[in-house]
Amino acid sequence: QLQLVESGGGLVQSGGSLRLSCLASGFNLDNFAIGWFRQAPGKEREGVSCISRSGNTNYADSVKGRFTISRDNVMNTVYLQMNRLRPDDTAIYYCAAGALCSGYRAVAVGGWGQGTQVTVSS
Hints:
This protein is mainly beta. It has no helices and 13 strands. A hairpin with a 4-residue loop joins strand 7 (67-72) and strand 8 (77-82). It starts with a strand and ends with a strand. The model has no long low-confidence stretch (mean pLDDT 95).
């Protein structure tokens, strides 16, 4: 069974850091572009960052310079290091496996994780 599992979310104060993980099971992550998305209450899901199969990375302007996406194909995991967190980063964060990155969004997504909650207090 193909599955993506996010972890690493939590409650952090403004200015703090978290590292999210996206672990794949049942398939090799290195065959896919992996994107991180988020959805805040009452808002649509938005792209945050994407890493291509070759390791190229892209970020939404709102997180550029604060977030870093990386992949460890041996561990079959993609990470999102989030620094200098702000209250408007509060959302459920999802990872997705796609065919490729279109800017900072994974497209032709074949699978989603269940999400991990990130809450940033002011």
